[in-house]
Write a structure and sequence with these properties.
10 helices; globular; alpha/beta
């Protein structure tokens, strides 16, 4: 029998995982603006940041979106970043020179801020919140009238093979790797699902744009090692507990899946990102 999804345990695991991988994630991926992190520019462009704006960056992680926003804000602007991971927040604090900025350890489902913002951004966080409506309604409550929310999420499994090339064999060989109901990376990969989630929370003038990027993780072995130490870090010990035979079968199947993206021994994955915006009327 599959384990039952427990949102509290999920958040504890998520927090511990991000405290472990934050540094690698930041310096190998996010800060380089490669692959899906080219969407950082799309978020700030969509948000149309003004120098005096008061901005909240939800699930700000290591602060890549915050950093770009801070470069537009002037002395009357304000930037607040919130995240569950202390390690990620420490990286954000260290990489942002903007004086009117603060980074707070906070759960997006329980935003404890009594303040009105002009814009709220959220890159690659929405699909992982157990109760997205709770998060979106909280955001709506702290947005000014005509304030704007801008979120970025990953596309569907077939449009983001970086995840599915390895995750598909994992789910085939270890079907109980995660409890039913666990949020997945592709949860809002369908533009219609993303649009309806924002509308359900009361956002208006909702718009979703699709952006297609490419990511080059190197050889298959480099990709496999990177995936196991970052993306699959929180489930790796459970996977390895199934023994080396199961691990080698997963790797074998993933290698077969990766062939179509390989050229001259190196992989190039397509990577679809959806950027959605909505207005608080």
């Amino acid at each position: 029998m599959k384990p039952v999804f427990d949102p509290t345990q999920y958040k504890i695991t998520t927090k511990a995982n991000w405290n472990t991988v934050a540094s690698e994630y930041h310096y190998n991926w996010a800060d380089k603006k490669i692959g899906p992190f080219r969407s950082t520019t799309e978020i700030t462009k969509t948000a149309n940041i003004k120098p005096d704006d008061k901005i909240l960056d939800v699930a700000c992680g290591t602060g890549v979106v915050s950093k770009e926003i801070s470069q537009v804000l002037g002395p009357n602007g304000l930037l607040v970043g919130i995240d569950l991971s202390r390690a990620a927040l420490n990286i954000a604090r260290g990489s942002i020179a903007f004086e009117n900025s603060m980074f707070l350890e906070m759960d997006a489902e329980n935003i404890g801020l009594n303040f009105k913002f002009d814009k709220v951004t959220c890159q690659y966080g929405l699909m992982f919140f157990p109760d997205t409506q709770k998060v979106l309604i909280s955001i709506k409550n702290i947005l000014n009238h005509k304030g704007m929310l801008v979120v970025a999420v990953h596309g569907l499994a077939e449009d983001v093979p970086y995840f599915s090339t390895i995750m598909k064999p994992i789910l085939e060989h270890v079907p109980d790797i995660r409890p039913d109901g666990t949020p997945t990376v592709h949860r809002f990969g369908n533009p219609k699902d993303l649009e309806s989630e924002l509308k359900k929370a009361g956002f208006e003038s909702v718009s979703v744009t699709r952006h297609d990027f490419a990511y080059k993780p190197g050889t298959f072995d480099e990709y496999w090692n990177d995936y196991m130490h970052s993306t699959a870090n929180s489930i790796r010990s459970k996977l390895e507990s199934h023994g080396s035979d199961v691990m080698s079968k997963i790797k074998q199947d993933a290698r077969k899946n990766a062939v179509r993206y390989e050229k001259d021994g190196n992989i190039t994955f397509p990577w679809t990102v959806l950027v959605a915006s909505g207005i608080n009327h």
